[in-house]
Amino acid sequence: MTTTPTDRRAWVDRAACRGLDPLFDGDGSPAAIRVCKEACTVREQCLAEAMADERCRRAIDRDGIRGGLTPEQRARRAGARLK
Ligand code: SF4
Asked: Where exactly are the structural domains of the chain?
């Protein structure tokens, strides 16, 4: 599915992480993962965008919690190298 800038704006505006950036940086935190999984209504769109953006990047070349997954979890899902 292709996402237009307008589509993206629509879901980003509903992201539960708005204003919580530090929690989601780096390897992220358990608190950030909880926000994604328990409070975010756009997790599916967020994860789809992350997977498309990052493609086959190694885990160490990914950053932050996106779609409720850590960089390593997203790399595994993509079948990418971890290191
Ligand atoms: S699923 Fe994505 S948009 Fe939603 S809180 Fe998590 S990182 Fe933010």
From this structure: 5-78
